[in-house]
Amino acid sequence: MTAYDDLMAQERETQALAQVAGRLGWDQETMMPRAAAEQRSEESGAMQAVLHARRCDPRRGDLLAEAEAQVSDEVARAQLRHIRRDHDRAMLVPGDLAVALARLTSRAQGQWAEARAGDDYAAFAPVLAEVIRLKREEATAVARGRDLYDALIDDFEPDMTATRLDTMFAEMRPRLVDLRARALEREWPALDAHFDEQAQLRLSRELARNFGYDFARGRLDMAVHPFSSGSGDDVRITTRVSEHDPFNCLYSTIHEVGHACYEQGIDPEYRLTPLGQGVSMGVHESQSRIYENQLGRSRAYTGWLFERMRETFGEFGLDEAETFYRAVNRVHRGYIRTEADEVQYNLHIMLRFDLEKALISGDLSTDDLEAAWNDRFEADFGYAVDRASNGVLQDVHWSVGLFGYFPTYSLGNVYAGCLYRAMRGAVPDLEVHLSRGDLGGATSWLCSKVQVHGGRFAPAEVIARACGGAEPTAEPLLEYLEEKFGGL
């Protein structure tokens, strides 16, 4: 056994334990009894203590240094790159801080859910303030002189910075605002009927399979905030149901299937290794967004879906495929990010990006957050937030400490725009196949170009390689949106 072999054996055990810890989070959001919250907080903290100790084990550092001096294989070097990054970061974070964060965010998630249900931000603000305090402490430990918010972004999108995102968003915002203004001048059809919950879930499962999700290695459950969890042979998805808005259920499912298919599509040789999961949240989001939007909301695919909707629900008030296509892509006033149309979605992200930068820098306190959110929303969207669950309490992310995560949603949209441009040139008769409900060509291309690689390449490199070497920019996304919604 070489040092590399010993190190990888240790890593497989650590990765397996991390999957178990993730399963605790999945259970908490889907099936855990409400009264178990405090106990789950202790369980999460205990798992984090074990994981942190393994990541900081001096033997790990010794094996890593030996392996780095011995290994030349490209895949092995990529494994070591991830292990070095993880090891160096873990060594900077005190163990008691890692455990405290795990315990606190487990508890805060439940408090967020209760506050959201009661539209009571004041009930959530104290625990959010504590989460932010610990996240600032964590960022200070790992920043090593960098900006604190950049240190948090780095957890989700390695080597990305707030400055680069500010530049990208400044390019995107005026064109999105102009497109929104033109779109809102038009009339858009909307659904106005009752859609049976169980029928929605049956159709959601069909669509999940249609997009390539393997139920032998996964399952679909309900959650307040849809998410995907796991990797390899255990990748689970969730959705939610509104009996007057089946698109919420159907497109949440397709979105999470994009995440799940990324994890299921990774080379099995990488399973339970650092390469055996998506390389970044931006690349991950590129898969969920291209599944949901460029494919799932396309004129071709919605033509097929329209017929499946009529077979499932009977007549529901829209009598032709083109009207249904416009309803699926309706540009409308609304509060909720996850229900936003493609034109306005990134404006929701920019709002959160600016607010959480201010929270981490200390320029904004949790006491003032709700008012700051409401003021910014009204300035950006032109109407007032009516209640906290439609505003500052709508997303779970801050309760579980995911600061620096939100901008990766827009970055994922940018990556998806680049991938879609390349896909249209690479997949023959793409729209013909989509019109038949056949996603095989599109999803196979994404798997071979992006998903199979897991963490082997750096995030921007994954996208550039898939797109023939072109560096990712926002232009393909903006052109796609202007072409699509200009035509609508």
Outline of the structure:
The protein has 488 residues and is mainly alpha-helical. The protein contains 20 helices and three strands. It is globular and about 65 Å long.
Topology pattern, helix = H, strand = E: HHHHHHHHHEEEHHHHHHHHHHH
CATH architecture of the largest domain: Orthogonal Bundle
Approximate strand percentage: under 5%
Q: CATH fold name of the largest domain, please?
A: Neurolysin, domain 3
Largest sheet, described in full? 3 strands, mixed
**CATH class value of the largest domain:** Mainly Alpha
Rg, nearest Å: 22 Å
Task: Walk me through this protein's architecture.
The chain is mainly alpha-helical and 488 residues long. It contains 20 helices and three strands. Strands 1-3-2 form a three-stranded mixed β-sheet. The longest helix has 28 residues, at 3-30. The chain is globular. The N and C termini lie far apart (62 Å).
Lay out the secondary structure:
Blueprint: H1 3-30, H2 37-55, H3 58-70, H4 74-92, H5 95-117, H6 121-143, H7 148-156, H8 162-184, H9 197-210, E1 220-222, E2 228-231, E3 234-239, H10 246-265, H11 281-295, H12 299-313, H13 321-328, H14 342-361, H15 366-381, H16 407-426, H17 430-435, H18 440-449, H19 459-466, H20 475-487
Parallel strand pairs: 1-3
Antiparallel strand pairs: 2-3
Helix pairs in contact: 1-2, 1-3, 2-5, 3-4, 5-6, 6-7, 8-14, 8-20, 9-10, 10-11, 11-16, 12-13, 14-15, 14-16, 16-20
Q: What would the keywords be for this entry?
A:
metalloprotease, Metal-dependent carboxypeptidase, Neurolysin, domain 3, 2 domains, 20 helices, globular, three-stranded mixed beta sheet, 488 residues, carboxypeptidase, mainly alpha, single chain
